[in-house]
Amino acid sequence: MSLFSATSAWATEEHKMFAEMASRFMADELVPNIERWNDNGVVNREFWRKAGDMGLMAGAIPEEYGGVGGDIGFDAITMYAQTSHGDAGWGYGIQSIVTHYITAYGSDEQKQKWLPKLASGEMVGALAMTEPGAGSDVQSIRTTAEKDGNCYRLNGSKIFITNGQSADLILVAAKTDKSEGSKGVSLVAVETDGAEGFRKGRNLKKLGMKGNDTAELFFEDVKVPMTNLIGPEEGQGFYQMMKQLPWERLTIAIIALGSIDYAIAETVKYTQERKAFGQRVMDFQNTRFKLAECKTKAEILRSFVSDCIAKLEAGTLDAATASMAKYWGSEAQNEVMHECLQLFGGYGFMMEYPIARLYTDARVQMIYGGTNEIMKELIARSLDT
Ligand SMILES: Cc1cc2nc3c(=O)[nH]c(=O)nc-3n(C[C@H](O)[C@H](O)[C@H](O)COP(=O)(O)OP(=O)(O)OC[C@H]3O[C@@H](n4cnc5c(N)ncnc54)[C@H](O)[C@@H]3O)c2cc1C
């Protein structure tokens, strides 16, 4: 299994070596723990640190801030290695997104302070945009960051925040100017350790992705130094989010690809072993055709993802194309999980078979990072100019 397609011109020898190392690490350190993390509702900190020690989270972070100064392809490789080993719980996708915000818009002081810790796994990051009353319509958020001396006072609540229980550093979207819509939104970084007035709600019970700690977060007069504003001035948050969303959407397509590859491999193995009517389930034409369809979707997605990674690196991945990757990739993932689970028969419905977990993990991919309806709206907008 590999993220690379024949057309992955972006993939150098270094990327390939990194991919081999990441894959070995996931086989040794991730696979034996997936079930436990799913039962506990959280990935333990030791794993974050081990991944940090291996440099798996440092790929795209500049060298002067504790990274290895590579490109986004390295982050894509880590994400693919995780998901192609059957896990959707480890919140590395968001960790990568947070590091890219700080790298792109953070001050030198912020980069010095946070990037090395995010690379090493000492800090876990989260990105908090969604609120109980504002999901797709991000500009209607109500969380405020009001100036008070040389601080902001943060008030409001966020919901469905990935890594919400573990997070040490949360980029919070808040209104610094309530009279403005999108132009009044800023990103403010909250260091959770000792932050008075900051409260984590319960670990939310979810249909899938159970190994991730997804939480509601509450901010009551939380004092945040003004130096924690992301960017040189207020009102840049919406613009920053729009610029970073193509990467967030592409991460969802990469996760889809890794999960599809894993599901197909598991299903091939199972149907080769399982017998019915005196023959292997793999020998039924229906099985062969369904798996052929799934494999075709995987290869189409692999090429598309690869193309998007190259475009992102070149600075040419537009919102519509990233939306296509997110929408099509997550739908392909759900279709593949549906077909693969069916080929396991009743065993596919049992949680001890990974395909059951993969099926439930897949569903949210069509919802978060912007729902697929919003993706289609963005694609349509690019046509209707
Ligand atoms: C497991 C999980 C993890 C998440 N992680 C994070 C995170 O880390 N950080 C974060 O900020 N958020 C996170 N989210 C939130 C996620 O991004 C939102 O749930 C998503 O954007 C949708 O918002 P909503 O739930 O409020 O749905 P709504 O916006 O209320 O949408 C409800 C329905 O209406 C449709 N709809 C809305 N607007 C339109 C429109 N204009 N045209 C057509 N249809 C429309 C939607 O597509 C959907 O079907 C997470 C969610 C989940 C479930």
CATH topology of the largest domain: Butyryl-CoA Dehydrogenase, subunit A, domain 3
Mean pLDDT across all amino acids: 97
State the separation between the terminal residues, measured CA to CA. 40 Å
The CATH superfamily of the largest domain is known as: Butyryl-CoA Dehydrogenase, subunit A, domain 3
User: Main sheet, how many strands, which sense, barrel?
Assistant: 4 strands, antiparallel
Q: How would you explain this protein's 3D organization?
A:
- With 385 residues, this protein is of the alpha+beta class.
- The chain folds into 3 domains: 13-123, Orthogonal Bundle (Butyryl-Coa Dehydrogenase, subunit A, domain 1); 126-235, Beta Barrel (Butyryl-CoA Dehydrogenase, subunit A, domain 2), CATH 2.40.110; 238-383, Butyryl-CoA Dehydrogenase, subunit A, domain 3 (Up-down Bundle), CATH 1.20.140.
- It has 11 helices and 9 strands.
- The strands form 3 sheets. It has a 4-stranded antiparallel beta sheet with strand order 2-3-7-6, with no helix packed on it.
- Strand 2 (144-148) and strand 3 (151-162) form a beta hairpin.
- Helix 1 packs parallel to helix 4, helix 7 (237-273) runs antiparallel to helix 8 (285-314) and helix 7 packs antiparallel against helix 10.
- The model has no long low-confidence stretch (mean pLDDT 97).
- Bound molecules: flavin-adenine dinucleotide (FAD).
- Flavin-adenine dinucleotide is lined by residues 94, 127-130, 135-136, 160-162, 206, 209, 214, 364, 367-368, 370-371, 373-374, 377.
